[in-house]
Amino acid sequence: MSASMIGWIKAGWLAAVAAVVVASFVPAAAPPGAWGADKVLHFMVFLFLAAVPAAVLPRRPALLWAEVFVLAVGLGIELVQSFIPGRVGSGGDLLADALGVLIGIAVGRQVWRRLGLAMSIENAALDPQGPGK
């Protein structure tokens, strides 16, 4: 994956984080709480937010900081929602966020491994002498 493409992915990811934060602070944007639908929404959103950096950041320190940042966003959202009319900060939502992050890391790393394998196969096919020669 080219540095340019990774830059666009990072920019899109930051835009997604910003969109989640903004949507979380709008009083009328509260998702329905029936049957735990809001927990599923929290889980899926944070799975995505965690999977993207896990899929494109090869080094562990950068990945660790990105995932800590995503968890901090979830915690911050829940804390701030306590002060917004029509919104409620919830430990259950935070738990769903954290589970989404954990599963998102696993999914993203699996994607990263597969992308790495695909790129090494592609590079080997382009290099008639084979890898490392």
Task: Explain how this protein is built.
This protein is an all-alpha fold and 133 residues long. The protein has helices spanning 3-25, 37-56, 60-81, 91-126. The protein has one domain (3-126). Helix content is 76%, strand content 0%. Helix 2 (37-56) packs antiparallel against helix 3 and helix 2 (37-56) runs parallel beside helix 4. The radius of gyration is 18 Å and the shape is elongated.
| Number of distinct helices | 4
Helix/sheet category:
mainly alpha
Alpha-carbon Rg, integer: 18 Å
The count of DSSP E runs of length 2 or more, i.e. the number of strands, is 0
How confident is the prediction overall: mean pLDDT?
82
- Strand residues, percent: under 5%
User: What is the global morphology?
Assistant: elongated
SSE arrangement, N to C: HHHH
Helix content: over 70%
